[in-house]
Amino acid sequence: MTPTRISEELPARARSAVTTQAELATMLRVVALADYTRPLAVATFAMLGIAECLQNPRDAASVAGELGLDPTALRRLLRALVSCGLLTEPQPGKFELLPETRFLLDEHPCSLRHAYALLPADIRAWGCLEYSLRTGQAAFEHVHGRSLWQYLSEHPEAGARFNRSMQDLSRLEAVWLLDAYDWNRFATLVDVGGGNGAMIVALLEAFPALRGVLFDLPRVIAQAVALVERAGVAQRCRLEAGDFFARVPAGRDAYVLKRIVYSYDDADAVRILRRVRAAMRQDSRALLLEPVRRRGNGFDYGKLLDMQMLILGSGRVRDRHALRELLAASGLRLRRIIPAPLVAIVEATPE
């Protein structure tokens, strides 16, 4: 329905308030931004693996039969996603994935199928955004009575889905991060809190002379074994279990903390960074791979992630000034920030 047609159907009082097509276009844009239907529909579509079934035109009934879904409900979802530009309907009643959205397939080298996992626990927390805005506290802990990390450790299925989402995001981020920095300068590095190993695997695959340590909690390290072995880098990747609040493997050239520091408040972030500083040689580098909040009012992915930190935990996305102060409190000096899509590379050295 065109803006002109919509304005004709508005009540007289509303038409008097919307005096220009530009104002009406702005209203419609706000409506689209506020509508949660699209992100939930796309996330569910990806999570259920429906894209795998639509590499060629198929009707909803046959896909529903394969995946154990209701055919009428699935048809309604697919129609909606055609209107969003995610799918095409080359023949009436038959749907197909568009070439430009094939990154939702598992086989795509930068697959995002699992990147935006639909966790009911997160959705419940977002439903209490008002609580965070009134108190400044995490809605997740208010709703569930425990932190996000505690919840994930107590709910293995949710934890596995979260880890898989981090793996997909890491694979995408590595596309830019591998070229944005001179990783060849290092012989050894530690991936601190590196999860299931997606980032360190990408680094070791790209730089055959590099050797690394994947360091995380015991239950996380246990889940990383398969990925490291499947990638063929097990001989150059040591898996070490531990708690980065207590210690970090010492004496390596570089210490990578990907999406770690911004997940914590200043006090805990300093505790982590001090452990890293204690492990570093004087010529080592600390590399924080995380969003950095930018100045200005343009679109900033970091500002959106900052909202996630408000809802889900105690962390926040910091700007250059805040990062410099945080690093200084940890015995580190900010050297430079290298911008990249999604996350930046924050380089620091010992004071």
The H/E string reads: HHHHHEHHEEHHHHHEHEHEEHEHHEE
The rounded Rg comes to 23 Å
Which architecture of the largest domain would the CATH scheme give at its second level? 3-Layer(aba) Sandwich
What is the third-level CATH name, the topology of the largest domain? Rossmann fold
Provide a descriptive summary of the structure in words.
By secondary structure, the chain is of the alpha/beta class. The protein folds into two domains: 102 residues, Winged helix-like DNA-binding domain superfamily/Winged helix DNA-binding domain (Arc Repressor Mutant, subunit A, Orthogonal Bundle), CATH 1.10.10; 228 residues, Vaccinia Virus protein VP39 (Rossmann fold). Helix content is 49%, strand content 15%. Strand 4, helix 13 and strand 5 form a beta-alpha-beta unit. The longest helix has 25 residues. The mean pLDDT is 91.
Task: Detail the topology: elements first, then pairings.
Blueprint: H1 3-9, H2 12-17, H3 21-34, H4 37-47, H5 50-53, E1 58-59, H6 60-67, H7 71-83, E2 87-91, E3 94-97, H8 120-126, H9 129-135, H10 139-144, H11 148-154, H12 156-180, E4 188-192, H13 198-206, E5 211-216, H14 218-230, E6 237-241, E7 254-258, H15 266-279, E8 285-290, H16 301-312, H17 320-329, E9 332-338, E10 344-350
Parallel strand pairs: 4-5, 4-7, 5-6, 7-8
Antiparallel strand pairs: 1-3, 2-3, 8-10, 9-10
